[in-house]
Amino acid sequence: MSNTTFSRRSFLTLGSIAALGAGAALAGCAPKAPAADLAETGEEPGGAAAMQTADETKECDIAIVGAGGAGMWAAVEAVRAGKSVIVIEKGGDVGVSNGSIAGGPFMVGSKLQQQAGITFSIEEAFNHIMEYSHWSTNAAAVKRALELSGSTVDEFTDEFGVATGLRPDNYGAGHDSVRCNFQSDPKDSKTQAKGVDRMGPLQSFVEANGGEFIFNTAGKRLIMEDGTCAGIQCEGDSVIDVKAKAVIVATGGFLGNVDMMTERFGTFVNPLGSILSVGEGIEMVQEIGGQVSTQWGIAGNEFSGSNQNADGLWGKGNAAFSIGIYGTLLVNNQGRRFSNEGKFANLPLALGGAISLVGGQYYAVVDQAYVDGLAGGTDPWTLCGADEVNWRTGMMTLKDKPLEDVQANIDAGVDAGWIFKADTVEALAEAIGAPELVATLDEYNGYCATGKDEQFYKPACFLQPVETGPFYAMQYEPSAWVTIGGIRTNDRLQAIDNAGIVIPGLYVAGADNGTLMSAPYCDYEGFSLMCAYSGGRMAGMYAAEAVA
Fold first, then answer.
1. Nearest CA among 244, 294, 268 for reference residue 88
2. Strand runs labelled E in 332-409
3. Helix (H, G, I), strand (E, B) or coil at 327
4. What are the pLDDT digits (tens) for 162-199?
């Protein structure tokens, strides 16, 4: 396969496809112009241009930039407190964000859990999250977010009429359920409320209480007066200054910004959500002196590998993509192993994202015997020995779910040029430009024969030999639902400067906030969505308290 450069324009196109196919969009910011077009547009690549002359000025108590999960819940809390609110959203409605489409949030103490007899405490969740992050996040903010998580799920149903239910514990949290879904029928995922169906009732509540939404308009520049944030300048069909006593920035991170992701992660990352979020929120706060976090990472793709040149970018249940998360041999561009692949298989959303960033462009290497095993109707978990202890995630998500069209899907990847096939190991190593693959496979097959991984100590169930030709190398790249990292805040989600001093009038929530989430991503499924919903509520509450 040729080393085709992945342009910003093609990135944006694939990102849009991913948003439609995966249904995990992010909200708040629009794509940057392709690099080749910057001279024509006059847009500055690293930050906002100078303040423009406004065509219109609006005033409110609290301006909210972004109508994603954080922005919507911030608006709900602000109007509950009797404050006037204006929400600025780059998309056309409230149904384009990750918060409106993602599966469901992590939760503690919800009515659903209480009714099911699930005794999951704030203390247990808090201790696990903080130990997992090595106390690198803001403990008080995390604690408050957890305290709000259960009631947030309750309110979706009790106050806004959005059905919620329990999702099974797929990743070993230790309880029957630590995450909700939005399905009216617990057994039918097609009944999941998404988009406007999920967030529309919140919008109606905000508008019924005097709130205003401005769509197809992006927040661009913070308005500062004597060191205090006094509003936001927005651009859509016209330039609008929204003067406010407090501003909440919640634009969804930077999944649509190729340069920013490469700078922060060191490698290309495929977007699985919307590319509307390009880091504008983070950049505008930085430009007025906001401090950035030390935590930068991704919530990875728990369903499969991905490749920018593949038809569809990624594919759940498609062997060509999903072999990469089954604990099979993974090698980097030099043909060397770089991780305990069992960690990837058991925690694909959390550790898998971090491990994929280490690999950069990497390969899953298998032989025809493994492919034939999948093609013969054996599900991936059973093929690896049905180990309930060492591959619990496989048991929960893959058991009794054999893959279809295995050989055909792999052959399609070969034809497309991102899967490599060769009759010998030496020829495969030459095809991917990684001569060290030969020695790696010789050593690896020795581990498979003895049942002991002497290099990275992955469980024996994942030690599938690569001996029977032809041989395959699936080329993958990191992919993400959401970015981690942004503006550092205090426990009240107020932006702070490099000395830790509060920037008056300015709050940051959701994926723009670098205080609640750590990297690697937390191993509680739905954690980022909980941080968005709870963080939005926190920002709305705290801003309302501060506004006279």
1. 244
2. 362-367
3. coil
4. 999 999 999 889 999 999 999 988 778 789 999 999 99
